[in-house]
């Protein structure tokens, strides 16, 4: 028997992830796809030139905006700055080696950065923003190679993608990018010595039918990534914890190399590859867990009609100096983000329970609350009805009962 609490005991926030269309009408959706490029040395050099041109345009625009502000003049826009760059091309032959999109999109990114800066300044005056406003800073090639965004004529093939000025670039994964969608932009970027391309595709897709499966409660944790009310569990890969010793050693080797030396560049490359490996292991575990929970490819009766998550205050949890590293290693916010957008595509509703709901302290059978329960207690024991259950499984059952 599952204890069903009254509605007055919890605060609910319903997220209807999509407008379900029972008639199956097609809707235009914007999807992003990311794949790794298989480049030769000449193509890598050309990609570096485009990334450098985008970085140079960003720094040039930032410097010109600061000069105009100090002189009391009108701040130039991205269009004004691009006209200035076009006037400089005869005296700068290297600009003809790259596409105009690198300069245009770099200046547009600068305008977007200032737009967000002023927005945060306005919110800070109102008292609704507590962090930094984030004034745009000059980009350095010493920190990262960066990337460049392209618009215009972009074509996708099963095993390659064609970009302006870069030509046809091979893809390592074949058949992943859609061939019929309208591509509005493509972005290349470098990460730990590997080059990737991301495309923004406008696709016409049939609206998902509402799911009719069971209600699932999901309890996130550190020991386990997620515990479900139906008995399933997903283990936490602990990507950072397993590599922390090797990461410290690699970081120490990097710091002991002479600045500006070739050995320091090699050590930096090894360090970036290790960081990327840790991030990839964590991201892969999150994608596999969320995909199995949402079950987007299964029939309507096998997909959960409601997924209940706990609205945990992650920023507050990270202030615990004893558990902050372990909590950050889980990726709880990324887990919730993936659940929300995958549920939208699958026709599943997502319910966020209040962060003050005592789901771990409440007995899922009779409703008795154990106020003395601590984080070290991994087994829930009810003194009223004698229920003995795993702590996370008990919390997941309570979350599932809230949706009823």
How far apart are the first and last residues' alpha carbons, in Å?
14 Å
| Backbone structural class | alpha+beta
Q: Encode the helix/strand succession as letters.
A: EEHHHEEEEEEEEEHHEHHHEEEH
Q: What is the radius of gyration computed over CA atoms, rounded to a whole number of angstroms?
A: 26 Å
Strand content: 15-25%
Shape: globular
Tally the helices: what do you get?
9
How many β-strands, per DSSP? 15
Strands of the widest sheet, in order across it, are 3-7-8-2-6-5-4
Domain Transposase putative helix-turn-helix: 31-74
Domain Cas12f1-like TNB: 333-399
Family: In the C-terminal section; belongs to the transposase 35 family.
Domain Probable transposase IS891/IS1136/IS1341: 198-320
Secondary-structure map:
Blueprint: E1 12-15, E2 26-38, H1 41-70, H2 78-88, H3 100-126, E3 147-150, E4 155-156, E5 160-163, E6 167-171, E7 182-191, E8 194-206, E9 215-220, E10 224-228, E11 233-235, H4 239-255, H5 262-294, E12 306-310, H6 314-317, H7 324-330, H8 332-346, E13 349-353, E14 379-381, E15 388-390, H9 391-402
Parallel strand pairs: 9-12, 12-13
Antiparallel strand pairs: 1-13, 2-6, 2-8, 3-7, 4-5, 5-6, 7-8, 9-10, 10-11, 14-15
Helix pairs in contact: 1-3, 2-3, 4-5, 5-8
